[in-house]
Amino acid sequence: MTNDSTASGATAPRGGWPRAPWQGRPLPLHPLLLAAYPVLFLYGQNLGELDPSDLVGPLAAIVVTALAAVIVGAYLVRDGRRAALVVSALVAAFLLYGHVAGLLGPLGVRAVVLQVGWIALVGLTVVFALKAGSDRLSLATRGLNLVTALLVIVTLVSIVPAEFARGNRSAASATPIGGTAGTGRDIWYLVFDRYGSARSLDLLYGIDDRPFLDRLRDRGFQIVPDSHANYVKTALSLAATLNLDYLDDIVAAQDPASEDHGAIYRHLADHAVGHFLHDRGYRYVHVGSTYDPTETSPLADLNPRIDGPSDFVDALFDVSALPAIARRLRIRTNTPARERHYQVGRFQLDALDDLVAEPGPKFVFAHVLLPHPPYTFASDGRFLTDEEDAALTNAQGYAQQLVYLQARLEALVDRLLALPEAERPIIVLQADEGPYPTDYARDTVGYDWATATSEDLEIKFGIFNAMYLPGSEAPDVPTTLSSVNTFRLIFGAYFGADLPPLADRSFTSAGKYRPYDLTEITDRLPSAEP
Fold first, then answer.
1. pLDDT of residue 170
2. pLDDT tens across 346-367, in order?
3. Does residue 496 carry a pLDDT above 80?
């Protein structure tokens, strides 16, 4: 005789599988939560440096992929809970591989041991998922739902309040600047990340940059040999330069312990230089980098940029299991972040070449992540593979990238200076910061700048700074001019703006992620060269 309740398919026999994939309870949410966790964790670790727009796309793509895998698996094995267990194991192996490797690597655990461990975990999970009875399956599902929910909640506890606080802050408005219409000459402001002063490069890498600087002098540039960055990192440095003032008011309004860079980023996005030149009929062309605050500008009339994955997506890939799988299968691949760095660098330099023929008056701004690592450019401009890069010392990689950059810069400058004298632009070639001293590079979060030597400070704060100032209005550039005075000098000379120079000052931050906890180190910088 047939039992009516069993025959109806309402529930499976004890220990058996349900007749439909989603009849088993509780619903398995853990694969989706586990897929979301690494993305949210990485975002939370870089909260002050990223924007919610960086998060949404990767989070949705990864969670939807996990959901699709659970649905397909559920219909294959006729049980969503069993399929979800296997999907969660695969998600953990793929997305948490790099994090676990980072924890176990310093303990001497070899990659092959780690990989065997992950394979064993996935294999045991598959066996359990296929063999477990309904009660044990329900218990495992409830436990995993709870654990993964707690993981997601922990990340959201730090993310949500920070995002609400960021959204409630108003953007600082640029201070209006008076002055005349000016000469109508184009202005090219090109920033090269971590391009140190001649002394900086000599101290850290043993590189003699004087021949390149002499070639610029021969072309009419004024070199600023004792120029220093005003701040220790890009966003602060550029925000000060493009607003012609120090960030004292913004810093005073923030908690020194805050890691939220939002106030700085808004000040950088809505800058005084852009407004001043727009008001005088200039087109603003912003050649974007992969660094989010300078990727595009809301003030710009034109934002040429290369399409492709963001740095956040590249970072997710790098901590996944995919690079390790490629190495194990002996598939030659290059790190996506390195390939992207190369492609964007080439794009930016090519875009600048193309802009020479664009009609003016125009303001061209580019934040070029060269000679900033990773080292992807050989001296002849070809791509350095991961293997070639690994064979180079830090000094050799920097030197090769610098040689290529300088060759491109000289070619660009020659094209600009070939224009009739009345059409030659104002050209500023400048760095936002110098390269990282050895001890700082080891620990950018916890490094104590109070322990830095005068040489360390020169390496980090000494910057490349060269200006071509054409026409009878051209001022003499002080040999110690810091970047905050760049446009005070230019707007005063060419536009009649009343912008007296500020005292040259430099500040460190208490760790990479505490931009408002500043200490002035001006008096600790090496004295100017005779």
1. 47
2. 999 999 999 999 988 999 999 9
3. yes
Separation of alpha carbons 279 and 275, rounded Å: 6
| Residue from 249, 300, 305 nearest 275 by CA | 300
Residue 230 tokens read as 């005003």
| DSSP character string of 374-413 | S--B-TTSPBPPHHHHHTS-HHHHHHHHHHHHHHHHHHHH
Residue 203, CA distances (Å) to 229, 395, 435, 530 in order: 17, 11, 11, 18
Q: Is 528 exposed, middle or buried (0-12, 13-18, 19+ CB in 10 A)?
A: exposed
Query: What are the b/e assignments for 185-223, b being 16+ CB within 10 Å?
Result: bbbbbbbbbbbbbbbbbbbbbebebeebbeebeeeebbb
Q: CB burial class (10 A; 0-12, 13-18, 19+) of residue 481?
A: buried
Which residues lie across from 426 on neighbouring strands?
Answer: 187
Please check whether residue 245 is in contact with residue 484, taking contact to mean a CB–CB distance below 8 angstroms: yes
Q: How far is CA 374 from the centre of its chain?
A: 12
Task: Please give the CATH topology (third level) of the domain spanning 190-304+336-524.
Answer: Alkaline Phosphatase, subunit A (3.40.720)
Domain ranges of the chain: 15-167, 190-304+336-524
What gap in Å lies between CA 356 and CA 364, rounded to an integer? 10
528 — alpha (psi -120 to 50), left (phi > 0) or beta?
A: beta
What pTM value is reported for the model? 0.76
If one counts every other C-beta atom within 10 angstroms of the C-beta of residue 172, the result is: 20
Q: What residues does 302 pair with on adjacent strands?
A: 285
Which residues are within 8 A (CB) of 15 and not within 5 positions of it... i.e. 6 or more apart? 133, 134, 135
Rounded Cα gap, residues 424 and 469, in angstroms: 9
Q: How far apart are CA 233 and CA 482, in angstroms?
A: 14
Residue type for position 464: F
Give the pLDDT confidence score for residue 24 in this predicted structure.
65
